[in-house]
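Input set for joint prediction.
Command: fold jointly, output tokens.
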Amino acid sequence: MSHALTPLSALLVSQMVEAALAEDWGRSGDVTAQAVIPANAKAEAIIRAREPGVVAGLDFAACAFTAAQSGLSMQRFKEDGARIEAGDDIAKISGPAQALLASERVALNFLGHLSGVASQTAKLVDLVAHTSARICDTRKTTPGLRAAEKYAVRAGGGVNHRFGLDDAILIKDNHIAVAGSVSAALHAAQQAAGHMLSIEIEVDTLEQLEEALAAGGKIILLDNMTPDSLRQAVEINQGRAILEASGRVNSDTVVAISETGVDFISVGAITHSAPVLDFGLDIDVKA
Amino acid sequence: MSHALTPLSALLVSQMVEAALAEDWGRSGDVTAQAVIPANAKAEAIIRAREPGVVAGLDFAACAFTAAQSGLSMQRFKEDGARIEAGDDIAKISGPAQALLASERVALNFLGHLSGVASQTAKLVDLVAHTSARICDTRKTTPGLRAAEKYAVRAGGGVNHRFGLDDAILIKDNHIAVAGSVSAALHAAQQAAGHMLSIEIEVDTLEQLEEALAAGGKIILLDNMTPDSLRQAVEINQGRAILEASGRVNSDTVVAISETGVDFISVGAITHSAPVLDFGLDIDVKA
Amino acid sequence: MSHALTPLSALLVSQMVEAALAEDWGRSGDVTAQAVIPANAKAEAIIRAREPGVVAGLDFAACAFTAAQSGLSMQRFKEDGARIEAGDDIAKISGPAQALLASERVALNFLGHLSGVASQTAKLVDLVAHTSARICDTRKTTPGLRAAEKYAVRAGGGVNHRFGLDDAILIKDNHIAVAGSVSAALHAAQQAAGHMLSIEIEVDTLEQLEEALAAGGKIILLDNMTPDSLRQAVEINQGRAILEASGRVNSDTVVAISETGVDFISVGAITHSAPVLDFGLDIDVKA
Amino acid sequence: MSHALTPLSALLVSQMVEAALAEDWGRSGDVTAQAVIPANAKAEAIIRAREPGVVAGLDFAACAFTAAQSGLSMQRFKEDGARIEAGDDIAKISGPAQALLASERVALNFLGHLSGVASQTAKLVDLVAHTSARICDTRKTTPGLRAAEKYAVRAGGGVNHRFGLDDAILIKDNHIAVAGSVSAALHAAQQAAGHMLSIEIEVDTLEQLEEALAAGGKIILLDNMTPDSLRQAVEINQGRAILEASGRVNSDTVVAISETGVDFISVGAITHSAPVLDFGLDIDVKA
Amino acid sequence: MSHALTPLSALLVSQMVEAALAEDWGRSGDVTAQAVIPANAKAEAIIRAREPGVVAGLDFAACAFTAAQSGLSMQRFKEDGARIEAGDDIAKISGPAQALLASERVALNFLGHLSGVASQTAKLVDLVAHTSARICDTRKTTPGLRAAEKYAVRAGGGVNHRFGLDDAILIKDNHIAVAGSVSAALHAAQQAAGHMLSIEIEVDTLEQLEEALAAGGKIILLDNMTPDSLRQAVEINQGRAILEASGRVNSDTVVAISETGVDFISVGAITHSAPVLDFGLDIDVKA
Amino acid sequence: MSHALTPLSALLVSQMVEAALAEDWGRSGDVTAQAVIPANAKAEAIIRAREPGVVAGLDFAACAFTAAQSGLSMQRFKEDGARIEAGDDIAKISGPAQALLASERVALNFLGHLSGVASQTAKLVDLVAHTSARICDTRKTTPGLRAAEKYAVRAGGGVNHRFGLDDAILIKDNHIAVAGSVSAALHAAQQAAGHMLSIEIEVDTLEQLEEALAAGGKIILLDNMTPDSLRQAVEINQGRAILEASGRVNSDTVVAISETGVDFISVGAITHSAPVLDFGLDIDVKA
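tokens >
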């Protein structure tokens, strides 16, 4: 990536991590470590990648280990957004053994999930790197984790689509049906929106595309079109609007789509169906 | 499943759904629908499966549609835990069009994610149905969604392992290393735990298994053993302890593992790496 | 207003109102009414305007009266966004007298504050109605009430600028100073932003304006310029970018600014310094 | 002020400030600074008054800048309650430039609003300084900010009336109407209240005042009376009860009211209609 | 009681009850009922007193049973504040058996605890009924339950002292020591407080009492004095100030204290050490 | 105790303490200290036991004193679980006098309540120390304080029963009645539960005990049985199941119950009816 990775706000990270710790610790914390590990035992642990990918979520892991006055510290060997190989050391954690064991799973759950999203994103980003198309996400995210997953998309080299229903207008088929036409829907949106609110409209056909362009559409979503249709759309557009392609995008189809000349390709699967990236934690406890 | 599905508490469901709606609605709600759809427009919508699987999450979808005094109602054609086919109608939602569009994505995000978990679980459950082994989950869940994902595992025919660090003891290799031996760790745990707290101990070798059995271990986790070793473990055990197998379980390996005679097989992938099950929402708006 | 008023999400309204009720009710509620008014007394009350303006906040008032299973109901005679005169009846509330008295102040505090914002906005909107300029708000809002105040700006006929630091880019003098130049700052922002994130850049001089236009700036904030400079800016722009004027805007200066041809005029005072609009509540209690 | 200013609890300050930061930072924080300002850039900034008044809210500003492990520090040149002139330096903030820019608006929104309340209060306090009357506030506060605004009233030299419906009894016209008479209402309240709960009763006429005094009223609110009536009330009272005047109090009317001999004058406008006090932030960024 | 019982705000009750249900239901609710009781089984249950006392907490019980859309309803046979005998039927609950069993313990925990507080209060209230002394509470309450326990004190016929550190001033020995004298401390408080904030001062000797009276003290706490000293204090006071006795008050000592002529007797034990009042729930399930 | 005391998670402690401080500080904090104690006054205080018992809750006290950046520090002379005598010094707190006075009551309320629970537990533990029976708690806890009270039970030498309805199955008479028989209920539970969820069944007669044993019951609750019946139950059991006795257990009855050979004795009174243990705070303020 040629630009710096926009970090998540520390407030958001600590809220999510504290909620996850509460979820895992329940009402009496790590009863196993408390029963078996002496309170004064120290430990060191290395987080190590077990497969190649892109790392994301180190702030979450660090927060999980250092929350609740744990006495732990974490040293990073990689930064979010870095390409990693199986076997790479990612971070070292040192401090009280009980605290380390109590936070291990939450830290790895965040790190694995977000690195999974970043890695799936990066795969598609790499596949389209020879074109001007950029990979972006959708609102098809895991409930409660949207800001984190969208951050991971950025870590993987993708860009973010809108965050929610409130920060941009996206007119879809149902809206058009009610409004009566592409241009009627677009005009209603243009009239309601202030100058800082982006407006995108989804079209299913090249006729709709022409109507959207005529009505002053500046961002147009081409839904479920074949590469041939997309190529025609790019030609019709003549650079007037930003064009985004969506629908059934995966590693088999993304190259052909990207080569049509569209500007953005949005993919739900990078957030809603990314398998975790596998990390291990090798712990050395000194009783 | 021969027994009823244990539902999630309505309090938990509404908390998770309201948080997800807040995440999606942000600071001004669905600006698109508000700009384009008349406030008094009504709509009907059908949630339809686009691929076969097991449905889970209908309480979440219903809650998303009916929250915030939306005026919407939802009628179910399937119940959680049901096997469904592509094209099956799952539920019908009726009421104000703006409200329906504002909740659609959150409802589908929950339904897709949880049905994904249920379906992945069911695949493994089906593969081992000819044995007495049961599929169970782990603490490798998506942060913030553990209770929901564990519910989805039950919907898919699996059973739940412990929910967190607090509701059962699970002694692992690091604990054993600090305690000095399998039996020392087990004794420490037995002494600390009350009579309602289950104790499981992880062993890596058959020697450790024998030591655990001799020390009165009642639930034993056989980690990363080959089917041959598992079979030997079952023989050594002679029905004394409950045996759970774990480590790199997937659809290729699960049958062989299940046929060794172990009682439970725990799988992280059913919660941390399940792709969504695909549902569509066909909306008919009457302006 | 020619388009419908975008409402606030019911979730947000009830959260804000319940927090305000908790703030006013403290630890034992309305001890006066409980001591003096019989529990079974009924009451009717009319909310009446004491000065002309634009009403905003009826959802908040209704929520304050009907929260906490109060048994109250509220009938509206006006809708948010309506122009009202002194003496106009706005709404009627009926039900248990204790509950009505307990919610009166919170309801009026919201209604007065938000109608105050709407009315200040409408004053400026009226003053510039003969031009194409539109009045918009800023991030200079009362802490905790931004979404509500921005809603009131819409009720007053204004449009909303960005909601926070996250939903649009606004490059100011400090950013430009660090980046080295208007064009350097703009390029950095264009590279970082996805296609749905609007980018605005603030310029202080006509030279900066030309640089911004040359660098592809699409939304440009003209800060603290005289009407003469603004008029020159409009000429230079030739319709290429959206132009927003800001700085010391008030009822004395806004007309001259609006007649320069700028598209938007942003005003902090409509949210941060609007006096309340005065409403009275005439209560008729039947013991 | 001859006595120290009672501070707000640090818990309340940090809760309000974190909520305001969350409101402004939304789901991805300050995207502008992150895109344009290098992560390692440092900055220094001076908060400077742009108009004379009384400062209030420095704890809020300090908390906004130092929250979320920002790495920023703030040095104060003034303390809350101080009279300031246009051009006065109020505080200096130093640290990471991105963090400083991300917190600037929230810090100034609190400081401007609370200093506005303090300054409006001080204006009235100054006008009545030659009398024994003291200026106090009401429950007509901005929703969610009551504790902060009442703190600002103290900073401006005023005193606080009750905080909510629960911490003192205030019998008004509606209560009296239901109870049947001033004395009936007062007796009901005296019987219900413990010895630590203050009781005030509102009267509209001198006859009601005499009835209230006869019934043992210790704090009496004289609502909407002319200076002449207030003077008569003071004479009738003969020092028996504490007398508070209220109703349409502003800088034109307050002197005459204060010279009648009443003890307290309550004013809603100092909290509900105070314009912000204007502060600027001059930032010097070192990339 | 000659006056109506001031109820707790419904907002507070539902917040406390939902927190307690969440505490009891944890992450998967009532797994026993879900495993053993059919989902469509109905039940009726009677809450019955197992010992005599004063009932308090029926709003909490009702809320526990009807929360989370349980489908349950509760009919009351007694109201809070009523004297009850062993064997008395208190309320009947009807509806889904699973829901009834899931809420039973939380409902009874509130009812037992709050009725315990009310009953302990009533015992002391009865013992001093032949005098003008009234029993009041302290801030020695169970963390998190102060508003509820103070409500239960009222249900038992007691009156409430201040609710917290913020709603009244209570000057104790440490404050006096720092201020230098009783009168210095009192003057500092009188100067800082507005007219609605009550001021009480604690004295240990009759000399201090005289000093407090001379300094205009209106509410005086006589700490740990013998009945003889209290009687002298009453004589010295001559009705000028309200007198409150405190220190080691219990059923053995309270009569003698009350007969000295003091106005209030404050007792920590009625809130911090009240044993529960025992209630049973007889359930009749119809599968 | 021969094993270490399992601590409460620091997250839980700080949540409970901050809620209790908010409850006590209300909307403007400690107005007395702020009015009377100079802001720069320092103080030292000793927490001293006023009666013998077992201390529990020092983490809560420390958190109350050091929360909200108070500047206070606390040094411990005892640890939770220690037997203490009247007059023992427990801890010393040093720092700003205002902060110390503001936190004193909350710290002592926690310490007194939890030490009360620990001490009541320890009394019973001591009484049965000559047998193999162990004292355990129930779900009859104070709403909102279950985790803290169960911790205090451990500090007193007891063990914890299940924490809520979700972390173990406990089949009672109503469940058995609906299921049709002891064995039917047990089989339903065994089928529904995973291998980590303990199942206990309550029996009222020796016939039910035999049925439960025959059905594979591993943990059996003997409810309200006489010592004679309990002894017979132990004989019938022959070590097959863990036996728990419950019902009307107190210091008069517990010895006889413990000598019957049962493994556990559960007691509601140690949590729901424990009087506080009395502590004093001797403060030395240096103005």
